[in-house]
# Entry
Amino acid sequence: MSGDVRVRLARIEDAEELAAIYEPYVRETAITFEYVPPTPAEFAERMRKTMEFFPYLVAELDGRLVGYAYAGTFKGRPAYDWAVETSIYVAQGHAGEGIGRALHDALERALAAQGVLNMYACIAVPDGEDDETLTRNSQHFHEHMGYRLVGEFYQCGFKGGRWYNMIWMEKILGEHRTDQPPVTPFPETSVTCVER
# Structure
């Protein structure tokens, strides 16, 4: 890595670069179960919807976008408001450079500032040995970030002529109380853990 990773809030105008980071994951791997990469316009709309309530972060390295992370609704029922599903993508060729960790740490701080208590990661994994399109590296990364495995679903995703498993991992951020205050929309927080 030649420079320092800078994490900041995403902007809609980042959509084209972020869609380009995501595209090879769709076309060449089973890391995502999407079959067709979203267009930059579709990607921008996804970002816009996410940013209405949750943090959406990007990582820059030497002036280029090299990753992104965001949170979204875990389940669409009010009792789940304190839980989120997280996603992190690092540009191919930049694994092991600390980008995923920088994004995750900033995302965790932003979510904690909102009052989120449970972070969940839905991760595709091989059904057996690693193959050229999918390994358990994401599972190991999340373990390193403090998540625990809470469930595995077997042969639930079909892509590229193969069946893949999916796991759920969980990280608890705060105390669960009987008088729990509501989660604050991210745009209404005064988070200073990322550049705005």
Q: What stands out?
A: The first helix runs from residue 15 to 28.
